[in-house]
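2024-03-11 09:14:02 DEBUG pipeline.ingest accepted 1 chain
2024-03-11 09:14:02 DEBUG pipeline.ingest length=155
2024-03-11 09:14:03 DEBUG pipeline.predict start
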Amino acid sequence: MKMPSFFPVTIFYPAKKILALFLLVLGFGIFQTSPSLADLRVCNQIGKPVSIALGYRTDQGWQSEGWWVAAPDTCSTVFQGDLNSRFYYLFAADDISGGTWDGSVYMCTRDETFTIFGVEDCLARGYERTGFFEIDTENKTDWTLQLTEQDTNRP
């Protein structure tokens, strides 16, 4: 029995069309770029764990937060989302050798995990007064900082 010439077109054409549409949609899903994450990351390049504290200005005033621990040869995200300020402040300590990355901008910290509002009267409020160094993000929405041996202050 000979099939009519329209049979392959009638039966297979819609299937080919559906398959083509499916592949097109799948292709968009695979090749579509996901939105980039805009964060402030600190990468540890010293071969020992590093504890990190961050300070920055919010709508309510100064805020300091800590601690993030960056294992050797890894990065820690210390601020998630678009950076909405040009300057951020960082303090980091080598947990093994005691070296620090610090500066002359003083903010409040403590030994345990913290979020502290304000930079005034740290000691009177029961906190430590710690020197942070300035990070200029050049008004970019994301930034990655590398901590290296050369930049640390050894005790």
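2024-03-11 09:14:41 DEBUG pipeline.report The mean pLDDT is 79.
2024-03-11 09:14:41 DEBUG pipeline.predict end
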